[in-house]
């Protein structure tokens, strides 16, 4: 996604250090505009944190390839979702899942190109996102993973909301995506994406909010809890999927910090983005197009959210 600075974090939960250490160990062992695309770089980001607990500087965001216009986006299949499990370990907690982009965005270019205020400036309402070389759109991937993630969290008793569920012709805009989480008073928000970088750039990374104060943006209260949330997701994503942290963003920590994403800048509740892999790399694309792997990805994200909410 193109999509898709921070204060030094203060440890809030004992498990955080263990998750961060596990992530770093696994990483070293090789173990859109409009909020949706990460930086496409030939090598590790020089400004990224060298450990999950250290602050990092954002890197320039690349251009993200759009889905082929010759391929009509498929509508999300009908999906029956169970109610929250009564008495589950996440009962009373609210999670918002933000599936990046929208499969029909490319049919509404004027609407999604409209500029919206992201606190530090203005940016497009949304973008089309990227796609695999075979035409599997990021927006289809994100909605599929969001459905799987919703079911896993509801099975633990959480109240789960989606920013959209295939029920809109385009968007929502990045400022509205943030507002949905804020108005729900969510305990955690995760925006699901897949990257569109160069061939050979592989792996996942979690994007954390930078310290931003400007316009309508003030992330000072969410920087530390968002880092805790993101660190736990990154560590447990490794365990569930077997994927390694990105080899081109975040210095192989699986974490990146950015201040140019409206979905993070405008959030008043803990929120992160996750780029699950690079759709433009054939090896990563083979994973992202596999239903079995997408279930593992959803499980890893759910485990990270659950770990964060349980403390």
How do the helices and strands line up, and which of them pair or pack?
Blueprint lengths: L13 H16 L64 E6 L9 H4 L2 E3 L4 E3 L13 H17 L4 E4 L11 H10 L4 E8 L9 E5 L3 E2 L2 E2 L4 H19 L13 E4 L3 H4 L5 E8 L3 H7 L2 H20 L1
Comma- or semicolon-separated keywords:
31% helix; alpha/beta; disordered N terminus; 311 residues
- Beta-strand percentage range: 5-15%
SSE topology string:
HEHEEHEHEEEEHEHEHH
Structural class category: alpha/beta
The level of helicity is 25-40%
**Largest beta sheet, briefly?**
6 strands, mixed
Ends: how far apart? 30 Å
Description:
The chain starts with 13 loop residues before the first helix and ends with a helix. Mean pLDDT is 82; it is low at 1-33 and 38-80. 31% of the residues lie in helices and 14% in strands. It is an alpha/beta fold and 311 residues long. Helix 1 (14-29) packs across helix 5 and helix 5 crosses helix 8. The chain has a six-stranded mixed β-sheet with strand order 4-1-5-10-6-9, with helices on both faces. It has a two-stranded antiparallel sheet with strand order 2-3.
A few lines on this structure:
The protein is an alpha/beta fold. The protein has helices spanning 14-29, 109-112, 138-154, 174-183, 223-241, 262-265, 282-288, 291-310; strands at 94-99, 115-117, 122-124, 159-162, 188-195, 205-209, 213-214, 217-218, 255-258, 271-278. A hairpin with a 4-residue loop joins strand 2 (115-117) and strand 3.
């Amino acid at each position: 996604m193109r999509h898709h600075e921070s204060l030094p974090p203060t440890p809030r939960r004992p498990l955080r250090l263990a998750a961060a250490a596990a992530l770093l160990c696994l990483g070293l062992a090789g173990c859109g505009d409009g909020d949706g695309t990460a930086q496409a770089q030939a090598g590790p980001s020089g400004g990224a944190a060298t450990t999950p607990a250290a602050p990092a500087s954002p890197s320039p965001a690349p251009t993200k390839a759009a889905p082929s216009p010759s391929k009509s986006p498929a509508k999300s299949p009908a999906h029956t979702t169970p109610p929250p499990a009564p008495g589950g370990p996440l009962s009373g907690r609210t999670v918002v899942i933000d599936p990046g982009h929208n499969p029909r965005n490319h049919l509404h270019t004027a609407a999604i190109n409209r500029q919206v205020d992201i606190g530090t400036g203005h940016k497009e309402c949304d973008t089309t996102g990227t796609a695999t070389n075979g035409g599997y759109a990021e927006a289809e991937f994100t909605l599929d993973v969001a459905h799987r993630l919703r079911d896993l969290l509801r099975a633990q008793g959480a109240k789960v909301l989606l920013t959209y569920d295939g029920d809109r012709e385009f968007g929502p805009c990045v400022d509205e995506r943030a507002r949905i989480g804020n108005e729900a008073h969510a305990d955690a928000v995760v925006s699901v994406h897949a990257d569109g970088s160069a061939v050979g750039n592989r792996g996942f990374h979690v994007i954390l909010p930078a310290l931003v104060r400007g316009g309508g943006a003030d992330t000072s209260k969410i920087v530390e809890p968002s880092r805790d949330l993101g660190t736990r997701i990154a560590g447990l994503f490794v365990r569930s999927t077997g994927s390694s942290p990105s080899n081109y963003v975040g210095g192989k920590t699986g974490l990146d910090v950015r201040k140019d994403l409206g979905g993070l800048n405008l959030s008043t509740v803990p929120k992160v983005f996750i780029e699950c892999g690079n759709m433009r790399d054939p090896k990563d694309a083979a994973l992202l197009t596999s239903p079995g792997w997408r279930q593992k990805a959803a499980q890893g994200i759910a485990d990270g959210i659950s770990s964060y909410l349980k403390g």
